[in-house]
Every structure is written in structure tokens, then in C-alpha cells.
User: What shape does this take?
Amino acid sequence: MRYTIDVALLNRHGKVLRVKTLRPGRMTLPSLRVRIVVEAPAGAFVEWGIHPGDLLSIGH
Assistant: This one.
């Protein structure tokens, strides 16, 4: 990736486990609990008020 992004790491139920901002060329550490990764432009999760413990519903 060439720009900074926000990443939300969710379990299989959609519960936010961690929210991170990743600079270009960076990755998160692997975790057996993470089943879903949501990416957004940097700063979006702060603007949307997404924090660890929140429950997200992903539309189909």
C-alpha cells in the first residue's frame, strides 16, 4: 500500500478486537482470534467512533 490506512480487526462475531493505523509497508501481527479485517482511509475510524469492543455488522 502506498498510503496510511485504518484497520479494524474483528472476531468471527464482528466484535472489534483492535483498531490500528498502518503506515505504508506495515502489517499487523497475526492473531488466531481475528477472522475479519476492515480497511478504511486513515482517520475514518476515529471519525466514525469505532473502538475495540464495538460490534460491527458487515452487509452482504
Observations:
- The chain has a mean pLDDT of 94.
- The helical segments are 44-48.
- Strands lie at 5-10, 16-22, 36-41.
- The chain has one domain: 5-48.
